[in-house]
Structures are given as C-alpha cells and as structure tokens.
Amino acid sequence: MPGPLVWDQVGERLYETGVDHGVLYIPDATGDYNTGFAWNGLTTVTESPSGAEATPIYADNIKYLNLISAEEFGATIEAFTYPEEFAQCDGSAVPQPGISVGQQARSTFGLSYRTRVGNDLEGADLGYKLHLVYGAVAAPTEKAYATINDSPEAITFSWEISTTPVAVTGLKPTSVITIDSTVVDPTELAALEAILYGAVATEPSLPLPDEVIALFPGGVTAAAAKTKTAEKK
Q: DSSP letter at 5?
C-alpha cells in the first residue's frame, strides 16, 4: 500500500567496504579472456568514470537541449605486489627469467575484484559485489623507492587505467559490469564464480558481458523477492 517514506529502517542501512579476490585476465589473439591469474596484495581500486558531460545547445533565444558526451570508465589500481603476468600490461618484456626490459608495448587486460556489502544487522557479511572490467590499459606511473628506516613501510605500486568498451547485445558497449550477490540467484552466481576463479577441470577466465548476462536468466534471492513483493503491496 502507498505510504510515507521511512528512512534508516533496521536492516536497510547499507554500505560497501573492502576489496579482495582480485584476478588479472590476459586476452588471447581473438580477444577472449581465457587465462586468469590471482592478484595478491590488492589494496585499492578507485573507479573514476568520466565523460557524460552536457553541451548546451541554444535556439530561438532559449536553451534548446543538452547533448551528452560519451561516458568512459577509468580506475586507479593500488597493490603491494602484482602477478608476474602483469609485466606485459605494464610495458615490460622478459627476454630471460629474472630480466625485465621496460618501455615496451602495453598489453590490454581484464580485471575482476570483489567488494563487501554490509548493513546494520549483519555487518560486512551481508554479501558482496563482483566487479568485472574489460579492455583495460595501464598508463606509466611513479614507483617511489625509499630507504629503510625506523618506521619501514612496504612499497605500494599504483597504475592508472583506461578502458575500451566491449559490445553488449541490446545495450551500449561497456567496460564494466557489477553483480550484486544480495540480489542475484546464488546458484547462478556460483556458476559465474566457477568461471572467474576456475574449477577442477577448467582454467579461470573472464566471460564477455553477453555471456555473463546469459548466466542470470532472472532469478533473485529470497530476500530480494520478498522486497519486491512488499513494494507491490
């Protein structure tokens, strides 16, 4: 039934926190991300979308309309370390084991990572979101090496990334997909994670957007279904 808005009800005080389960994916010659590598030491992923800026158009002495520029997805990745396979994405070649040659061509890559979803009842254990990034390229960034002193700190590596969108049937091309575990069907989510992280007989891989969407034909969790039912009353 219609009624007044109510704020901050028990169980509805949601928040997001943390980042973990980072995976680097290297595309093959056809553009499929069929090889994945665990990214240990991931500390921060700062998503930085840009674009979608309005350009006003005037006619008949009035503001006639706004033209919106294309939206782009970028991010900053920070970590204490990175997979050896990321060297090719960071402009390095390895002609011999233990020898790295910089200023080489930078390979594109895909990325997945997980952030926690919490609320006032279950804390950060309520659920999580999977973030899938496509067509990423890392730009050269600074690496600050400092002397060891009485307050030693581990070096944090940082990379600015830009992306090139990939096709999505019926929608505009995109560089990022987000899946919310508190909404989607857990069985379908488990099927996606088996692809992302690998299984006994399969290598980890990053499915393209159409493949991801096809894994979720519309199922939702019991909690999400209950919420939708309540909204209809």
A: -
In tens, the pLDDT along 118-141 reads 988 888 889 999 999 999 999 988
Q: Say if CB 141 and CB 106 are below 8 A apart.
A: no
- Report the distance separating Cα 206 and Cα 166, nearest Å: 13
Tokens of 220: 């939702």
What pLDDT score does 226 carry?
42
pLDDT tens-digit profile of 134-188?
A: 999 999 888 888 888 888 888 899 999 999 999 999 999 999 999 999 999 999 9
pLDDT in tens, 31-43: 899 999 999 999 9
Q: What are phi and psi of 224, to 5 degrees?
A: -70, -40
> For residue 109, which of 149, 146, 67, 163 has the smallest C-alpha distance?
163
For residue 21, give the 3-state DSSP assignment: strand
- Residue whose pair of structure tokens reads 């987000």 in the numeric block: 178
How far from 60 is each of 55, 193, 224, CA to CA, in Å? 17, 55, 49
Tokens of 213: 């969407």
DSSP H or E segment with residue 173? strand 171-174
Query: If you search the block for the tokens 């158009």, which residue do you land on?
Result: 57
Give me the sign of the Cα torsion angle 19, 177, 73, 39: positive
Angle at 48 between CA 100 and CA 109, to 5 degrees: 35
Q: How many CB atoms lie within 10 A of CB 192?
A: 19
Please state, as a whole number, how many other Cβ atoms lie within 10 Å of the Cβ of residue 206: 25
